[in-house]
Model the fold of this input.
Amino acid sequence: MLNLHKDHKNLVLLAFSVFVALSIGVAIIPAYQMEEYEPIPGQKDLTAQERRGLNIYIAEGCVGCHTQQVRNIEMDKTWGERPSLASDYFYSKKRMDIWRQSPSLLGSERTGPDLTDIGNRQPSEQWHLLHLYNPRLVIEASVMPRYSWLFKEVDTLDVKDDDVTLPRSITKMKDSYIMVAKPEALDLVAYLKGLQQFSFDDYEPPMDFIPALPKTENSASSGASTKKSLGASLYQNNCAACHQTTGRGVKGAFPPLAGSLIVNNKDPEKLIKIILMGYDARQEYGVMSAFADKLTDEEIKAIADHERSSWGNSAPKVPLETIVKLRDSINKIPKTQ
Amino acid sequence: MKINYLLIIFLQENINTENWLSSPGVIGTIVLVFIILFLGLFIFIKRLNIYVDNLNKSRKNLTEEEFEKRLVNFDEEKVNEILELRQQGFNYKQKPNTIVRESKNSGFIKKIINPKNPLFDEKTKSTVKIEISKELRQIVIWFLSAAVFWLIFGTLVGQYVGMKFVWPDMDNTSWLSFGRLRPVHTNTVFWGWASMAMIGLGHYVVSRTSNREIFNYKRSKTAFWFMNSAVLLGNLFLMAGINNGGGEYREYIWPIMALFAIGLVLIFLNFYKTVAQRKISEIYISNWFILASLIWTTVLTFIGYFPDYQEGLGETVIQGYYMHQGVGMWFMTFTLGLVYYFLPSSLNKPIYSYSLGVLAFWTQMLFYTLIGTHHFVFSPLPWWLQTVAIVFSAGMFIPVFAGSTNFFMTMRGSWNHISKSYVLPFFLVGVVFYFVGSVQGSFQAFRFTNYLWHFTDFNVAHSHMTMYGIITFLMWACIYSILPKITGNEPPQNLVGSHFWLAFIGLFAYMISLMVGGTLKGLSWIEGNPFIESVILMENFWVWRAVGGSLMFISHIIFGYNFYLMVRKKEGTKSSQKQQLEAQTN
Done:
């Protein structure tokens, strides 16, 4: 009938039309369907600065190593409160300009961490700038490239009031020079800080994680050892980016915890207050954000105990009641920010 | 990454990292890796056999000293006999236009064999020169020269980028940074190396199987300039930080990809008209694959770049479709078409089953097209789309089995070719990887294996198994099988051999290190360890990857030299045009 072995016209037409039909069904129609999604009520659009930052994010190829999708499986719980939804990408995945399409933010490789919620995990601008300038200043084992071309050397005398600078001691500047973040760096950091998974607050998240069903028989026997490292792993996930795994901090940016008077104080009140409310009392160090909303009392206890018993520190454990009490008293303070 | 969503829904199996080694997907993958290892051993032992044979032979042979001793001890009668033979040789006059082998004692030296070097013993040259038109030879060499250039450039970039995992502070230059160079590497080997090589070889296949000249050589040359300028400009733009949005293989912005697409259309029309005016009634199966892949890829490029449905996650749907089809409909389909011609022709026998080839063709189109979304399983894409992708991923077994059975059965009984030349080893590795790489992909369909491997370096290992193990090895097989026949120059076996072994061992090291490292990384994530630990544990595996990559890159330089030997102008011959051409294209 079609005589495909001899009729080249039919052969090519058939191959062409079946392929087009399949493509419409499997790519074009679903793509149009995905466009019908609407933003979650209350979800914010990117600011102009964040959008410029997104452009840099794409131009530098950050998507090659960083994903922005929390899958509905348990190991992704670290990266967000809930699995990502199509609506999450409503504002970020828009065509960039006439030359460039909507950015491929979901990514396919996690050489670096997922960034869906990096703005919540790491809200410090100073940290982000230092990290972009040289990732190994803040995370020793990082293999991320340096983005030093987003910064420029300026004479200290020429620094303007609104310039954002990097601490001279860490960047090892000579003479009177100092590193100033170019607008591109500030845009990119604004974008990264704006990457915060939209929280549903009281609503049930529409999807839940597919659990990994952790080892049931084994958990009893190894329970003790996991408990012991709970504080260490919480510390690693929440604190080590700035204060470092070694507890030594980064000179000129993030204070050391090893040998710190606050950490080692017999009365843990100030330490717990700092963890709950954040800290910005000392000029020479970056701002610490508040963790009251991110960590439970038990988790704060585990972290504090870990800090007070590591790197040569030796202070008594923190009673849980202290944390509960402090949290209550903080909650009573009217928010006057 | 293939993953079986259905399995998740229907089988409530426990994901348990305790006995991850006994999970079916992992076991299957280990088995497949051993297939590759045995393949390497098989070829190695075959070659070793000849080496040992030769060694024994040369032991029996006279060494120079013994030869001198015998010469001194010769009696007069024997000496006279030899001198007489020599005299015959002096008196012999070669008639014009005859073959030298006419007289036994003509005095011509036919071949010089150094008995002291049995390892690199020259095999009998199989080269039967095939007479083809100057234009056809020229266009094949144009495209192949560009391909070789892009291979060396692209893998140099790949090697550099791979080293950055070990030494992240190698440079601080914006246009040499990892994020910008990574797409340069992938796009160059895709659109530069593999595409140019396929199109160059495609010209030969289409012309030979249609038994006529290519319809219009000028048009092919125009396409050549369009496509190569696309790769060149595209790479410059990528290094300047201008890319389409970071989606894999879609990093060139549309005006540049349009240049490439124009080239595709020109080549398609050229091939189509050649086939239309063929001088034999049947359309050979290779042409099915080649014509279809050209037209499918044109459609694919259009769909991939058309903006109307690409806001929000629409872009992600298209991305999954595009990047999978780029591999499946362009590289895989075109390459299979080439193998259907070059494998039987280099073994001098017909393909095992023509109808199996036809089956592979239609199933390739049906199943491959539908499975793009398996790159985004567990993502917020529609559930039904993921299911379709997974079901048809399993269906991919049909074209893969049909294709690899066909090739293996064609090779059956010709294993001795392995000891004669390196063409069959290249084919064999490519075909085994076709089987292993595709089946391995489907093993990732098990719930646990996807859970374990997605987002890790295992992906990188998988893509090198396919684009390198399958496509690149098959390209080399085709080039080594045809180029000496149309230029009359064969590269020395020892160089082809070192190319083969460096590439094979390099790829093996590359893939094993990333597979093991990727698995450990996935386990570390499942355990809930801090992320940075998964970076630290990869350190050594990245070193081994860089070592494997270096071997691969060295093999490409050897290949480049072999290629030069094959196309270079022989002194005193007429092909001075060819040299000009090389100057142009390199």
About this structure: Chain B has a mean pLDDT of 86. Residues 1-10+27-53+414-586 of chain B form a domain with the Cytochrome C Oxidase; Chain A fold (CATH 1.20.210.10). DSSP finds 20 helices and no strands in chain B.
